[in-house]
Amino acid sequence: MLNNEMLRALQQLVGSDNLLTDPADCWVYGYDNSRRHALPWAVVFPITHEQVVALVQLANLHAVPLVAHGRGTATTGAAVPIQGGIVVSFERMTRIIMCDPVNRLMIVEPGVSNQLVQETAKQEGFFWAPDPSSAYFSSVGGNLACNAAGPRAVKYGTCRENTLGLRVVTGQGESLDTGVYTTKGVVGYDLTRLVIGSEGTLALITQATLKLLPLPAAKRTWQVTFSSLEAATQAIVNVMQQSLIPSALEFMDEAALRLIQTYSPGLVHAQARAVLLIEMEGAAGMMEEAAAQIEQACRVPHFLEIKMASTEAERLTLWKVRKALSPLLRHFGSQKINEDVVLPISRLPEFIERVYGLAQRHQLTIVNFGHAGNGNIHVNLLFDADKVQEQEAAQECLREIFALVLSLKGTLSGEHGVGLEKLPFINQELSPVALKLMSDIKRCFDPKGILNPGKYGSFSFESKP
Ligand SMILES: Cc1cc2nc3c(=O)[nH]c(=O)nc-3n(C[C@H](O)[C@H](O)[C@H](O)COP(=O)(O)OP(=O)(O)OC[C@H]3O[C@@H](n4cnc5c(N)ncnc54)[C@H](O)[C@@H]3O)c2cc1C
């Protein structure tokens, strides 16, 4: 709980309009999309960088936890204040400070939605590459803290590759500008990339300089249907071996297609066992060659059909199938474990095949889809949470899936991050040396461990000297 001195100081700092202390008001800031919940002691809505500096200094003085909150769409529990303390909501820091097309950058506050960034950039003929499916709602601060990405990452990379610099406040309340305003720069360690993906455990982001890319002149989308899983995974490998890199290469397996057919009949071929959604963008003159490469890569045994969209309306129809999936999963089973593992492309066929084996052995429904061009597969284990046996089977199956991913030289998370969900597993991927270095880094940024405690980086605080 916050003492009276701290409460008075908070009121003075941000004003009572930007402070919640009633548990009923604070309740909703205790969730994220993991559906986990912990009640914060207070919620503060800073509106300036200076207020964030003062807030962190105050929290340091009283050793009070601070948990940054964008829009609470994280799927891992990363935004849940499990040790209480103050939730720092950035939803009122929503200014676009500058859009600079000449230098191909945009400077924004952390509460701006990804969608607003895209709309603003579009007016100047540009876009920001990170495109999570939650773009309409999720914030740039949350995107950066999770190193979020989406379908376009296969061609353009994630937040780390598309952010030039940050303004942040460390766990000691120091103001720090990282990065450059130029497209090159190699003075010192890359603190920008370090803070990106650190899930609010090293510093609070109060401003970001985003790298913009010119909108492509032309775009084509293909939906390719196969009557076997092996055919689709082979086509993924083929597409990624060709010279033109797709701007999206999405995969949906048979269980995913069954869901779509149940709730939106007619959207996919009746004999479909796997579907790929492939997009190419670039110069208009490149599209003929792109179409030829896609055809060649996908005409494998058990290929069923290929549909091409060349207008925006046709394109949206093809994407409807893929975009329907995440919300549809909510209709199925009472619980889902939604993972986002990444495999080297060449190991995808073996991985998916072996996940099917695990699903059968544990008698679980597993739905696989995702950003196959990056080898990033959303593996969804669906089960009835009220049945203890199913719950135990799902947990055991998950452990085996993670072991399989690592044995195939993959990684446990491509975009959702660690949060609380994957915390017990990270020592299977990271070496003791890496873990120790990470906790040393955490200590440098946040010596008292007040930023998002109990998460990433705070794992070895018990060994603090
Ligand atoms: C329907 C749906 C679809 C999704 N699709 C995708 C997808 O395609 N790709 C993908 O990558 N993710 C996806 N996600 C996950 C999620 O939307 C992203 O991780 C997003 O980046 C979180 O943004 P947010 O503003 O909601 O952050 P929050 O959930 O509020 O916070 C996420 C983390 O960021 C930290 N944080 C927030 N703001 C700051 C800040 N200013 N400074 C420091 N730390 C901060 C929080 O403490 C927390 O650790 C999806 C989620 C949903 C619900």
Number of helices: 16
CATH class label of the largest domain = Alpha Beta
What is the CA–CA distance across the termini?
A: 27 Å
Helix content: 25-40%
What gross morphology would you assign? globular
| Secondary-structure-derived class | alpha+beta
Strand segment count = 18
Unreliable spans = 459-465
CATH architecture of the largest domain: 2-Layer Sandwich
Radius of gyration: 23 Å
Beta percentage is 15-25%
| Average pLDDT score | 94
Question: Could you list some keywords that capture this structure?
Answer:
seven-stranded antiparallel beta sheet; Alpha-Beta Plaits; 18 strands; 16 helices; Uridine Diphospho-n-acetylenolpyruvylglucosamine Reductase, domain 2; alpha+beta; disordered C terminus; 465 residues; 34% helix; five-stranded antiparallel beta sheet
Structure notes:
By secondary structure, this protein is an alpha+beta fold. The chain folds into five domains: 86 residues, Uridine Diphospho-n-acetylenolpyruvylglucosamine Reductase, domain 2, CATH 3.30.43; 119 residues, Uridine Diphospho-n-acetylenolpyruvylglucosamine Reductase, domain 3 (2-Layer Sandwich), CATH 3.30.465; 109 residues, Alpha-Beta Plaits (2-Layer Sandwich), CATH 3.30.70.2190; 75 residues, Alpha-Beta Plaits; 33 residues. The protein has 16 helices and 18 strands. A seven-stranded antiparallel beta sheet has the order 15-12-14-13-17-18-16, sandwiched between helices. A hairpin with a 4-residue loop joins strand 8 and strand 9. Helix 1 runs antiparallel to helix 3. The longest helix is centred in the last third of the chain and has 20 residues. The chain is globular. The two termini are 27 Å apart. The C terminus is likely disordered.
